[in-house]
Write a structure and sequence with these properties.
The chain is mainly alpha-helical. It has a domain at about 100-130. It has 7 helices and no strands. Keywords: Chromosome, Citrullination, Coiled coil, Nucleus, Phosphoprotein, Ribosome biogenesis, rRNA processing.
Length: about 160
């Protein structure tokens, strides 16, 4: 029985040691006051990464805005003169090629437009050639015609024919 009781009871030295460790881990009240005095400004808060509490608005997903002046700016990698020249030449070549492609597309478009105009003109000429023409010599007939018949009449220049 003694051995069973001994197993059930925790070792007293272990509990004392764990209590001492927890006391050592927790900062003292005076230490906390000292930290709060140090962290007065927002910049210092950001440096120490102290988490902010829940905002009053309830928008926990919103982050604290930072001033534009606080953003760290880098000058970037400096390129050598030869590399800069090569980049400029490449850019010029690319621009020239793009201009050539645009010019070619524009020319193709203009050629299509011109072809369409020529086709329309040819179609109109063919339509005129195929018309059946009846010359009205007696102008008194025109006065006797009804409105529907007058609408069908079209004037043409017969000197060419």
């Amino acid at each position: 029985m003694n051995s069973v009781n001994e197993e059930r009871l925790p070792n007293m030295s272990d509990t004392i040691n764990s209590n001492v460790d927890s006391i050592e881990r927790e900062p003292s009240i005076t230490h906390q006051k000292h930290i709060s005095k140090q962290v007065d400004s927002e910049k210092e808060r950001e440096k120490l990464h102290i988490p902010r509490g829940k905002p009053k608005s309830g928008r926990v997903w919103k982050e604290q805005k930072t001033k534009f002046s606080s953003i760290i700016k880098t000058r970037g990698i400096r390129l050598s003169f030869a590399k800069k020249q090569k980049l400029r030449e490449d850019l010029k070549r690319v621009k020239q090629m793009s201009r050539a492609i645009k010019a070619q597309k524009h020319e193709e478009k203009e050629a299509k437009k011109q072809r369409r105009r020529e086709n329309l003109k040819r179609a109109e000429e063919n339509r005129k050639k195929s018309e059946v023409v009846q010359v009205i010599t007696n102008t008194a007939k025109i006065k006797r015609m009804k409105k529907k018949q007058l609408r069908m009449i079209e004037k043409r220049d017969t000197t060419k024919v």
